[in-house]
Amino acid sequence: MSVRVEDLTRSVTGSKGEKTLLQDVSLDVPNGEFVALVGPSGAGKTTLLRAIAGLDPATSGQIMIDGRAMQGLAPRERNVGFVFQNYALFQHLTVAKNISFGLDVLPRAQRPSRTEIAQKVSDLLQLIRLPDLGSAYPYRLSGGQRQRVALARALARRPGLLLLDEPFGALDPVVRRAVRTWIRSLHEQLGLTTILVTHDQEEALDVADRVVVMQDGRIMQDGNADTLEIRPATPFVMEFLGESLCFAGQISRGWFLADEAHIEPFQVADQEAGPAVAMIRPYEVTLVPEAEGSSLKRTGGRYGMARLLVDLGARSVEILRPEAEMPAVDGTKVNLAISSARLFRDGHLLHGKDPVVSAVTAENIRASEIPAHVLSAN
Ligand SMILES: Nc1ncnc2c1ncn2[C@@H]1O[C@H](COP(=O)(O)OP(=O)(O)OP(=O)(O)O)[C@@H](O)[C@H]1O
């Protein structure tokens, strides 16, 4: 099923006056796609999901599912399955009865026969890999098993659209990873369209075809992992999606000159002169030995990368470099040579020929090559 959200706004009036929870949100999810909604707490992710499910009304705008306007349709009329983090199972019902609940309560004319329901429950128990737990009660299940039962319950009425709101939130990291991989494979196997709300950006980037970043009730950016990494629309998107470092400076005559000392200038083709901010991931940097440079201190490391604290004077930043390159780092003096960066001005990405400026490598940078008039401009 495809979903189209058009200029959706939702405002509520409370004791402190009117509050806008969603502001002109538009989103297209083609049939079969797996989309993740991410953003800080209060960004409006749950509000958007609930509006799609039909649980909360919109103030303006519309939602189309498979080209059909949803206005006025109750959740059960939308062919949507949803699972919420705290969507508890009925404790007094067995797993099988929990799964069949949505079918058992259908009006007689629409309800499948008892044999059909039993077969369906058995199929769903197989699908969630708990074939022998149909007669168990929820208290006997682990958190991961309960989430799988909640999912089976959501799937019982064969929805074309699955809405998941932080469904892995209460699970430990190992189970969480296993369940999300499994949900992704289920999505493929059943030909679902899935929208997942998560505050875990890594989870979103790992599991979804497309990630929608929300902030303050608006969509800030919508793209696949590569687009978001290479062309983050704003510094917020870059920061939200992973550890990042930010260097304020100036673009002058085709070079970026950081305001801070110990950051090597780098060339930026076809970018307009003026103030700019360069943002990098902590590994997008190399080290240039420099007697008067910043001092380094190793603070940890993993996956073969050393984490290094670089003292820039007014502040320290943490970078990552391959362990193999770091025989004895503490106290070593260096300059930082940025190897690639995204440049922002006035809070927006500067679109040059290539938004990620691959800076000249440390080996290529020689102060003698930087025109004197550029250095004096700093
Ligand atoms: N019915 C309501 N009345 C008033 N304010 C509400 C209502 N529902 C949600 N909000 C507020 O709207 C904002 C967005 O809430 P929402 O739950 O959609 O955010 P979220 O991005 O899902 O956050 P989280 O990650 O914490 O779940 C929050 O500030 C929340 O307090």
The tally of beta strands, per DSSP, is 21
Give the class-level CATH name of the largest domain: Alpha Beta
Give the overall form.
Answer: elongated
Distance from N terminus to C terminus (CA atoms, Å) equals 55 Å
| CATH-derived topology of the largest domain | Rossmann fold
Are any ligands bound, and if so which? adenosine-5'-triphosphate
Strand content: 35-45%
Quaternary state reads single chain
Radius of gyration, whole Å? 26 Å
CATH architecture of the largest domain: 3-Layer(aba) Sandwich
User: CATH superfamily membership of the largest domain, which one?
Assistant: P-loop containing nucleotide triphosphate hydrolases
Residue-averaged pLDDT? 87
Helix content: 10-25%
Order of helices and strands: EEEHEEEHHHEHEHEEHHEEEEEEEEEEEH
Protein name: Sulfate/thiosulfate import ATP-binding protein CysA
Domain ABC transporter: 3-241
Keywords: ATP-binding, Nucleotide-binding, Transport
Organism: Acetobacter oeni
